Amino acid sequence: MVNKQKRVAAIHDISGFGRCSLTVALPIISASGVETVVMPTAVLSTHTGGISGFTYHDLTDDMRPITKHWKSLDLHFDAIYTGFLGSFEQLDIVVEFFDTFKKEDNLIVVDPVMADNGELYKIFTPEFAAGMRKICEKADIIIPNLTEASLLIGEDYNPGPYTEEYIEGMLKKLAALGPDRIVLTGVFFDDTYLGAASYDNSTDEISYAFSKRIPGYYHGTGDVFGSALVSALMNGFDLHQSTEIAVRFTTESIQRTADAKTDIRFGVNFEQSIPDFLKDLKLA
Ligand code: PXL
Q1: What is the reported pLDDT for 1?
Q2: pLDDT value at position 122?
Q3: What ligand 1 atom has the least distance to the C-alpha of 220?
Q4: Is the Cα dihedral 239, 195, 218, 283 positive or negative?
Q5: Cβ(54) – ligand 1 distance below 6 Å
Q6: Confidence (pTM)
Q7: Backbone angles phi, psi at 137, to 5 degrees
Q8: How many angstroms does the Cα of residue 235 sit away from the middle of ligand 1?
């Protein structure tokens, strides 16, 4: 049987070194058999998480012409996956992109990349956080961490451990912004396990996917997780199965990186998790 190949538009920055955003999304989604079309929002020498002296080239002015050109080619995307945006104006441009390419049968997946561990990334302002809410309102699925979730719903950050009641309240408040499905990362009820909660507003179903917590804050894991989630969804897995697959892939990548004692700022070794990931996706 011939399956029509899926195509995803990935809208993130490209940080040359440090394994996040497009240097993660492109290889992971492509490895899952999905064509990956990229719109870089900025070019940096490295990500901004704990590495000083990074270069930053903003690509805001290129994004409307790229959108226009893709529209002239009548491209269809099975999913639009957005992450790190490089300027305030890009929030409007992304909304225009959604309006141009949203169809009945495709998915808008927004990772509202802006904060972690209770803090906004240093290049973002509180106004940016308010703007990020606008693009989340247009999404079918959003994948915030708990810091981003608090910013989106305008509540103080709670560092955890959490209760099921708290997480379920967050999921429902996030769904009230507009997206039908939510995947919330960084969920833990005790010190042993860490994972994600998924919520489908149309069925009111909540599921959890956990794995053993590995100590340390590893950079870029949100992008590894989001890219794996999009890959699994595009390969026909449901939201809960996709969340489980993404948790496994991310945890395996973190574990290998921890075993190698790699600098936590250098991103995780997801590359060598790809064979197991493909088995999970039933592609190998
Ligand atoms: O992984 C999120 C991310 C993406 N892109 C850049 C970043 C970060 C997080 O710090 O700095 C440039």
Answers
A1: 57
A2: 82
A3: 1
A4: negative
A5: no
A6: 0.98
A7: -60, -25
A8: 26
* Per-position b or e across 120-139, b if 16+ CB within 10 A of its CB: beeebeeebbebbbebbebb
The reported pLDDT for the residue numbered 68 is 98
Cβ(112) – ligand 1 distance below 6 Å: no
| Interatomic CA distance for residues 196 and 215, integer angstroms | 17
Q: How far apart are CA 181 and CA 165, in angstroms?
A: 18
Q: Give the span between the Cα atoms of 24 and 81, in whole angstroms.
A: 13
C-alpha 209 to ligand 1 mean position (Å): 24
Mean pLDDT of the chain: 97
The DSSP call for residue 187 is: E
Dist CA 127 CA 53 (whole Å)? 25
Ligand 1 center from residue 254 Cα (angstroms): 17
**DSSP conformation class of 3:** P
- For residues 283 and 32, what is the distance between their CA atoms, to the nearest angstrom? 8
Token pair of 271, please? Answer: 């590359």
Q: Tell the residue nearest (CA) to atom 8 of ligand 1.
A: 47
3-state secondary structure (DSSP) of residue 127: helix
> Does the pLDDT of residue 273 top 80, yes or no?
yes
Q: How far, in Å, from the CA of 114 to the mean position of ligand 1?
A: 8
CA distance 58 to 243: 32
Q: Which residues contact 52 (CB under 8 A, 6 or more apart)?
A: none
Q: Tens of pLDDT along 92-149?
A: 999 999 999 999 999 999 999 999 999 998 889 889 999 999 999 999 999 999 999 9
Structure tokens at 4: 């029509």
Q: How far is the CA of 52 from the centre of ligand 1 (A)?
A: 13
Question: pLDDT, tens digit, for every residue of 203-237?
Answer: 999 999 999 999 999 999 999 999 999 999 999 99
Question: Ligand 1 pocket, 113 CB below 6 A?
Answer: yes
Q: Is 15 in the pocket of ligand 1 (CB under 6 A)?
A: yes
